[in-house]
Design goal:
With 119 residues, the protein is mainly alpha-helical. It has four helices and two strands. It has a two-stranded antiparallel ribbon. β1 and β2 form a beta hairpin. The mean pLDDT is 76.
Length: 119
Amino acid sequence: MVLNDINLEIPEGQIVGLIGPSGAGKSTLIRCINRLIKPSSGSISLDGTNLSEASPKKIRQQRRYIGMIFQEYALVERLSVMENVLSGRLGYLSFGNPLPAVTRKKILIMHSIIYNALV
């Protein structure tokens, strides 16, 4: 048993980093939270949704609110941190259909943030 008797609550908007010795279960905990692996017992909840029993579709929807960088991260070196982070959101945009005005506005704001960060 790698993880035992863990109760973790992260307030909304909080950024959390896990540190500890090799083999302590940090990666296993993060993989459970993101549901890359299913815990053998207990539950994982995000905003009232029990991810331990959620459907694959619901898990994908909830992952939009969970950020995770793997130990062997795959970042594009020539891009800034902001560009790497925002490029992870591209999978949630539809390029085949006209985008709603609200989405277009969000894209323009993201573009402005990236541009201003680079200048």
